[in-house]
Design a protein that fits this description.
It is built from 12 helices and 5 strands. With 336 residues, the protein is α/β, with parallel strands linked by helices. Strands 1-2-3-4-5 form a 5-stranded mixed sheet. The chain folds into 2 domains: 64 residues, N-terminal domain of phosphatidylinositol transfer protein sec14p (Helicase, Ruva Protein, domain 3); 209 residues, CRAL-TRIO lipid binding domain (Phosphatidylinositol Transfer Protein Sec14p, 3-Layer(aba) Sandwich), CATH 3.40.525.10. The longest helix has 27 residues. InterPro entries: CRAL-TRIO_dom (IPR001251), CRAL-TRIO_dom_sf (IPR036865), CRAL/TRIO_N_dom (IPR011074), CRAL/TRIO_N_dom_sf (IPR036273).
């Protein structure tokens, strides 16, 4: 870490020492014993401008207090059938760890339909996974590997990406905005696998719109990406859709223990059990009620809005102008 960045972190820390007590309490849930690394993440997200990074973090902490984010891991999505529907249509899971100890999160972008519950449930589920990652997974990895581990890697499976994905743009923009403003710089690298031609075309247009630090994080791999991913993780940590060419992602696997998207996978079982236990501790008297956990979603930044509009425009070109159809999903691209 350079002298300039060290000085910026020192200034940031001085400013944060002055915030009110409620913000200091929720900040403990954010930094989990690694405040300097957290200051570094917010500074990086604001190009090392201390004033902007301070405002961003204070806004994040206020958002957490106002929306009771510290208690979201005590708010189960019930009944179980509803939560299973959410998991079957919002494909995400923890497949393992990189050799450096970073958690490997798998995301089924192409086959996530987000059509089994209201937007609020998907947002709640997403934030719960973020919070479980930050409060349980990352601290546990830090203890195991004997060093601060505050970021993860994500493997995005584009199998099944279709023009109908346009219907998800609004929800994905909401989730992206929440992450950008409240969980900045938590992902070390995004690996894109099983990418169809339609993704390749959109990526060429969207890539120049991204900030340089974001562009550098995205790697589009050839096919299922197995050979490249094995350079940074063991075979057992590969997401199931990367273990053989052409296997792709699937909502349901005969072996739930291997399919990290499945509610039967040990990651989701541990997450569910943790949320259930926390709900009993926080609300031992009151029965669990069905109902989503609503959070305020800030307006997306101009960059995010522009990217969403560009993606929508490119998808529409495929549907209307070029005579291309969802059959393009069968075409693969090589990593750029």
């Amino acid at each position: 870490m350079g002298i300039v960045s060290q000085e910026a972190i020192k200034q940031f820390q001085t400013l944060m020492d002055q915030v009110d007590e409620p913000l200091k309490r929720t900040f403990q849930n954010v930094h989990q014993g690694y405040p300097l690394e957290t200051f570094g993440r917010f500074l990086k997200a604001r190009e090392w401008n201390v004033a902007k990074a301070h405002k961003m973090l204070v806004d994040c902490l206020n958002w957490r207090v106002q929306n009771e984010i510290d208690n979201i891991l005590a708010k189960p999505i019930v009944p179980t059938e509803l939560y299973r529907s959410v998991r079957d249509s919002q494909l995400i899971g923890l497949s393992g760890y990189s050799r450096e100890g970073l958690p490997v999160f798998a995301i089924g972008v192409g086959l996530s339909t987000f059509d089994k519950a209201s937007v609020h449930y998907y947002v709640q589920s997403h934030i719960q996974i973020n919070e479980y990652r930050d409060r349980i997974i990352l601290p546990s990895a830090s203890r195991k590997y004997g060093k601060p581990i505050t970021t993860c890697v994500k493997v995005l499976d584009m199998t099944g990406l279709k023009l109908s994905a346009l219907s998800q743009i609004k929800l994905l923009t909401i989730i992206s905005t929440i992450d950008d403003l409240n969980y900045p710089e938590k992902t070390n690298t995004y690996y894109i696998v099983n990418a169809p031609y339609i993704f390749s075309a959109c990526w060429k247009v969207v890539k120049p719109l991204l900030q340089e630090r974001t562009r550098k994080k995205v790697q589009v791999l050839s096919g299922c990406g197995k050979d490249e991913l094995l350079k940074i993780m063991d075979y057992g940590s590969l997401p199931h859709f990367c273990k053989r060419e052409g296997s792709g992602s699937s909502r349901h696997s005969q072996n739930g223990a291997e399919n990290c998207f499945s509610l039967d996978h040990h990651f989701h079982q541990q997450l569910c059990n943790y949320i259930k236990q926390q709900s009993l501790i926080k609300q031992p008297v009151h029965p669990m009620k069905q109902g989503s956990f609503h959070v305020d979603v800030p307006e997306p930044a101009a960059e995010g809005t522009q990217i969403a509009k560009t993606i929508e425009s490119e998808f529409n070109k495929f549907g209307n102008g070029n005579g291309l159809s969802d059959s393009l999903d069968d075409l693969k691209i090589n990593g750029d």
